[in-house]
Design a protein that fits this description.
The chain is of the alpha/beta class. It is built from 6 helices and 7 strands.
Length: about 190
């Protein structure tokens, strides 16, 4: 739940990794679009729309159906200092393609790619069932680095394929350590 007093005091959501909190991914993306500088607190909207004293957290069954991910074939040409390395986002998805969080994770990955961020997406557990999804594969064609859990693939008796790089938890650990931000959708 979000409490109005907490929201005001902390300039946003205090839930770890929430995009609307201080230092959240939303600020990172806005800062990246505006030339690398994160906007000041004064320039941001302090409180979104009608925020009640407490706002209930949505449960998966009450969330809207996943929307399709659309990503243009080419990532827009963003002016970037050639001496400055591209920012990297790691995304872990561990729920199947029929769960709303699978769609949330893929949409976040698509949005980050459209801003020029390198995205590394690792599918764990039931998420390996979505690796062959046409939308995820089109994102892969546009530059998404797609990984899958080999153990999960074998347990679900999925045939080996070239649609992702399969590996174990050591690979996942390396991805988490090599990215600037790492977000999990469970």
């Amino acid at each position: 739940m979000h409490h109005k007093g907490c929201w005001i005091e902390h300039s946003g959501c205090t839930t770890p990794a929430c995009s609307q909190g201080p230092g959240g991914l939303l600020e990172d993306l806005q800062g990246y679009k505006s030339g690398g500088e994160v906007p000041t607190k004064e320039s941001q909207e302090s409180i979104p729309g009608p925020l009640l004293e407490t706002s209930p957290v949505l449960q998966p069954e009450s969330q809207p159906q996943p929307q399709s991910v659309t990503l243009s074939k080419s990532v827009p040409d963003i002016k970037q200092d050639p001496d400055k390395p591209r920012r990297k986002l790691g995304v872990l998805i561990s729920v199947g393609p029929d769960h709303p969080n699978f769609g949330h994770g893929t949409r976040l990955a698509a949005a980050a790619m459209q801003t020029g961020i390198e995205v590394y997406l690792y599918c764990l557990d039931d998420a390996v069932l979505g690796i062959n999804d046409n939308q995820l594969q089109s994102m892969r064609g546009a530059g998404l680095r797609l990984f899958g859990c080999e153990f999960a693939r074998r347990n679900r008796k999925l045939p080996p394929d070239e649609n992702a790089i399969y590996g174990g938890l050591t690979m996942l650990s390396d991805l988490a350590g090599a990215t600037d931000r790492f977000i999990s959708f469970n």
